Amino acid sequence: MDSTIRVSKARFKLEQNKNLSDATFFATKGHAQYYAEPESTDDLIRCLEEAYRLGLKVSVIGDGTHVIISDEGIDGLLVSTRRLTGMTIKGNLITAYSGESLSDVINVGIDHNLSGLEELGGIPGTIAAALKVNASSQGKSISDYHFYSDCVTMDGRIHRRPDYKDLFGYQKSFIGSDEIVLSVTLKLEPTKRTAEARMKKERFVELKFVPPACNFVGEVFRDPDGMSAREVIKNAGLTGYQGFRAEFSPFQSNCIFAFPGCTASELVEMISFVRNRVLERTGILLEPQVSFLGKFDRD
For the whole model, what pTM was predicted? Predict the structure, then answer.
């Protein structure tokens, strides 16, 4: 059963008991009590208003690249921002709505003779998710190019966050749990060497080889201080470890593949097993970078 909510001139759907198998990259099968994919800022704000009216807790995802939703589902309203799309170019500034993929933002920038983010080309997810974790690769971070972002708080207020470098840290940014990113504006570098920039970006995409028969997520664990989680997992002898219907990548140790039929519980058990085994073998406690939504029994 689903319901269509009409407020003012905006029209959007709050779906009830939504199967989430197509909402995340892992394609697990939990359900959301309510689910919405707003296509505009007005729709998003009205979703928040309706959630407040119904007394629903609001959770937010992008395209679901770093999210595991419980097999038992999630209560409240789950909002996906993946339909909040669109980009504009003004000089060397590129503004992308939150649902745009990081990869597409890089490509559009290159198409308009703007470069700088090519090293981030292999990182999956939306531009908003990349900002939230201050996506980094090969010594480059999205914060190096951040100019400003527009966000909305859960009470529907929109505000602009200018670029203050001290608001960013390693794998973290200023985005709070009560904020939803509407758009991100980046200040990129003018270039005439677009062919070279495109080839550079594709090299980093190829480094994250993904088998065609599975879904995957990159960067399962955060990097410990001064170390690479990928190298820590490799040193623990767990590169390519497979259990249930999931596997830690034999190519990039900190990525996990989910094969058809894999459940959220299996993914959580895999992540917990590798985390505990790394601790036993190296004394290093890795912290997950993926988000867990819904009810989980995990250590």
Answer: 0.85
